[in-house]
Input
Amino acid sequence: MAMKDNTAEGDGRAKSAREQLIAVVGEQRYQADWTNNRHRARRLFSEFIGTFGLLFVLSAGAGAITAGAGAPIGKVTLVALLSLTSALWLVAVIYALGDVSAHFNPAMTFAFALRGDMHWYMAVAYWVVQFGAAGAGSLLARAFFGPASHLAAMTPPPGQAWQAAAFEAIITGGFVLVVLAMAAGPKLNGPFVPLAVGAYIFSLGMTGGPFEGAAMNPARAFGPDLAVGDFSTLWVYFVGPVLGAAAAVLLDTVLSGRATVREAATAQSIVLDDAASPPADRKG
Output
């Protein structure tokens, strides 16, 4: 009997969490949340609020700090202040919106889709909203402060674009791995996830910020670049985070196994009955 149960559990882990969830609740119920206009709009609006706010806070913060300093401000000082600002914003907004949707980062959405927690067409909708919100946030900041401090735009050191992309891959991979390990599916609603996100953003922002900006988020790089009209090095902050996110999904799968039915149910806002929910444990 134990051998049979272990085999069944192994077969379950061989499938993605999304496939397991469809088998448990049926295709119609699985699709209910995304095909419901109200639920879909809530999640996309949550992504817009969080990403817009993040880029407005960063771009406006750079402009306000530069304008208010009254004298040239050092790069390390500016990086420290912006890292702290973005970290605090993310802690607050993830606590507020984590139960709806709180990626605010195309690399994070890519990781959840790659892990099988959400459909790719849903991920595409998230990306459209995230990049649009990022551009809107930085453009609004430009309307207030002009192009001061390049609105927190980032550029790699001259001649070190590939090194910067590799650094972005490493720090983004670590960031995504931390979130995947703590989050219950694509919703960032674990009790300590906001604090972990804020701590990671601040510490790695201070580490990588003086070197290449430490975006860890393609939308974070896109917004200021759009506002200042310079996309010459934007590819660095796309290639690095995407590769890092993919590596994080692979590591998470090796360390913890495939995502569970319950995690995928959380991702789709589906409440599982205890009787219908298999004891899918990613550990072991």
